[in-house]
Amino acid sequence: MDALLQRDFLLAGSSLGFVGIGTNRRVLYDKKFGYFPPHPSAPKKFCILCCAFEAPTHASTTAKKYNTHPQNVDLPPVLSKKKKKPFPIPIHKLQRAARMDKKMAHMGIEKQLLPPKNGLLVPELIPIAHRTLESWKVLIKGLAQLLTIVPVHGCRECSEVHVGRTPHLVHNCSGSKSAARRSRHEWVRATINDVLVPIESYHLFDPFGRRIKHETRFNYDRIPAVVELCIQAGVDLHQYPSRRRSAPIRILGRKVIDRGGFLEEPKPCESQDSMSLLREIDTYSVLSDRTIPPPADARRTAETTLKAYSTVRSGLRQLMRKYTVKACGYCPEVHVGPWGHDAKLCGAFKHQWRDGKHGWQDATIDEVLPPNYVWHVKEPEGPPLIGSLRGFYGKAPAVVEVCVQAGAAIPDAYRPMMRLDIVVPDHQEKRFVA
Asked: Could you tell me the residue range of the domain that residue 401 belongs to?
């Protein structure tokens, strides 16, 4: 490297970012000062110089930190009810796997399945299933107590829910005859089922046994899908027995060639213990219980309930990676098991074309445990939320909003969607906001 080039390189320093190619003179580019002027006595010849610069370390660290904890995020888009839900797994991957299964079945090769796809339990997921079920009980009990001190309103005509003393004034009702009411909500007192949306599933003694037919659907109990998933993952409840296999099943293509025979399903237990368990795992039992006492320590109960809600979601996420859960692509129906049931109960978009059958596909965690987003109220004792400033308001799951208004600290995972860093302007100041 000649003296002129050394002089330009030292002037550039660590901010040297680009080197041009020229036929007359060497051209260097500095990120801070722009182009370096060529030296008057530089030789005029064609040259190529490749250099690299080292960016400051704090810039990459700041960018990584900003991407990890964004300031504000948008909620998932509301899907149209006149279209089928998108597949969680791309359709071309499903078609490729189906073609491979068909090819192996034509060659007479059995599918090599790992637990729990072959009917056996996964030992490392059994403690997670127990912890998820216990957290589910804590969530229902704590939420029932918090609803005695935190007012929650629900719309009579649509699924809108508001947590706060004064209902909001955002006119976005989509229920029946909403045009005559100019999309105004008809507020009534909400229940626990409005906050924690109940998603039920059929309880199966043998998930790999006979399918549920439309004529035999009343022979099976309906329990929360979270509880059914925990039972199939290893939780033993004598009220809801489940078959535990010691030998794996054998599948050729899509046909089960050896399931170990069919066992007679035991009759459901209707003892006093089963009724007490039902009150712990089902939200409908809270509606009939009029003796729910208010929490002795509202803040501690809110923190315990919020922690239980986070544990349930994390446990579901781990269990659903292994165990199969199906959801209808048109309606909220969920089925826990390798195949969906054959009950013709779907009344969603174009159900006549499907004879009322569900369009089964892989379920997501939000379909098993819907978050049910509500408007976040920064000042519960302040004025109600208005529709003209809805762009400045944030949202949060209804369970989280109830716990936060009861005194729990806001989790870091929900801060971006609550938009805590945005200052809501006054109604007269809105037109001056960029």
From this structure: 151-195+372-431
